[in-house]
Amino acid sequence: MTEPSGPPRWPELPSRSKHRIASDVNTEIEGWLVDRAAELRAQGHTADDAMARARREFGDVDQTRDYCVAQDRAAERKVTRLRVFSEAWDDVRIAARSMARSPALALVLLVTMALGIGATTSIYSVVHALLLRPLPWADAERVVQLHSTEGTERQTMGQLSARAFLTLRENTKSFAGLAAVGPSSGALTGDGIPENVPGLRMSANTLELLGVRPRLGTGFAPGADSAGAEPVVILADGLWRRRFGSDPAIVGRTIDISGVSRRVLGVMSPEFIAPLFPQAELLVPLDISPVLAHPERKDKFRYLQVIGRVRPGEEGAARADADRIMARLAADRPEAYLGIGVVLVPVREEMTGSIRPALLALGAAAALLLLIACANIASVLLARLVSRQQELGVRVALG
Predict the structure, then answer these.
(1) Roughly what angle, to the nearest 10 degrees, separates helices 61-101 and 47-58?
(2) What is the number of alpha carbons within 13 Å of residue 190 lying toward its C-beta?
(3) φ, ψ (nearest 5 deg) of residue 189
(4) Do the beta carbons of residue 253 and residue 263 sit within 8 Å?
(5) If we measure between CA atoms, which residue out of 284, 216, 214 comes closest to residue 248?
(6) Phi and psi at residue 39, to the nearest 5°
(7) CA distance 133 to 78
(8) Which residue has the higher pLDDT, 236 or 391?
(9) Most buried in the list 55, 159, 238, 326, measured by CB within 10 Å?
(10) Do residues 291 and 162 make contact, with C-beta atoms less than 8 angstroms apart?
(11) Under DSSP, is residue 308 helix (H, G, I), strand (E, B) or coil?
(12) Is 165 exposed, middle or buried (0-12, 13-18, 19+ CB in 10 A)?
């Protein structure tokens, strides 16, 4: 009858861990001390005296333990690296020979994996750029759009009138700043073939509100969006590279946009994304003075998309401020503002809200495509493995 061998042990990994190395060193040192103490007891020393003498003969146990552990770990890392490289090289050689024997199968597997990985990578890049990557603004999560509502429904574009924008900007303390933006486009002439370029009109404080500045030149000065101000423009990095050959001397030059000569103030960084209109490549000041001068249009002409930066911890107060101000406008001008409200919508949600479900579905489809490709490859390899049972049996027998 065999003696029980004790509790089962977990299989040991090929490489010794840090704790296992320390345990082995401790066992080695304790073994030496016990053996030496036994020799001293045989010479007539007591057990305590024998162990004390053995420790004195050995020296500093802690220092020796630390030194041995460090040496063993360095040696283990070297052996592990050599073993990994050796095994990887063996795997590569075996895979190359296997592919040479079945080139058609190897080609099918490579094409299948390339298609799966390529499609997944491409779609993930789009999803990451639009949904996952943080917006390149300072504390972008606190940048919101003041989105208009009519009754209980949110308006499609969420525009506000010029009077509503100015009243909100001048009477709320819960926002670090408010800015108005609007789409624009311009025919860029001169310096080559005329080109229609998407642009963005913005309040002079928009870039400051976002916490960004041009990589070259300067941003808009206060008052750049007022009547009679000098026509200026800031270029997106892509337009600067494509149209002007990355020439830094473009700053200060004058370019023609839709027949208007505008002085180039600066060039934005490649990471910059224009708020609400990421395709914009021309940034120009937004002058609302003509609309303000019209008695009816300044109230009933809702064309401004307003963004703001909420102060930390003031989200609730910002909503209350917006509701209070819009209620006051409705009381003063019911024919223009009755039933018009404002909700705060994160700019990220506003920029991707309509395409977010489609992008998520596309990302899930790409992941499923990669999973199917892997399953197909695994099935083919499993079928091939079955046909190689005899060969693998010989390999196992030979070690």
Answers:
(1) 60
(2) 11
(3) -115, 165
(4) yes
(5) 216
(6) -65, -40
(7) 39
(8) 236
(9) 326
(10) yes
(11) strand
(12) buried
Q: Which of 162, 158, 123 is nearest to 144 (CA)?
A: 158
Q: What are the φ/ψ torsions at residue 145 (nearest 5 degrees)?
A: -100, 135
Q: Phi and psi (nearest 5°) for 302?
A: -90, 105
**pLDDT per residue as tens digits for the range 4-52:** 455 555 445 556 677 787 888 888 888 888 888 888 888 888 888 888 8
| Amino acid occupying residue 333 | R
Hey, which residues does 186 pair with through a beta bridge? 197
Return the amino acid letter for 336: A
Cβ-in-10-Å burial (0-12, 13-18, 19+) of 136 comes to middle
- pTM score, whole prediction: 0.65
Residue 24 DSSP SS3: helix
Q: What whole-number distance in Å separates Cα of residue 9 and Cα of residue 2?
A: 18
* Amino acid at the residue 128: H
Beta-strand relationship, 282-285 and 232-235:
antiparallel
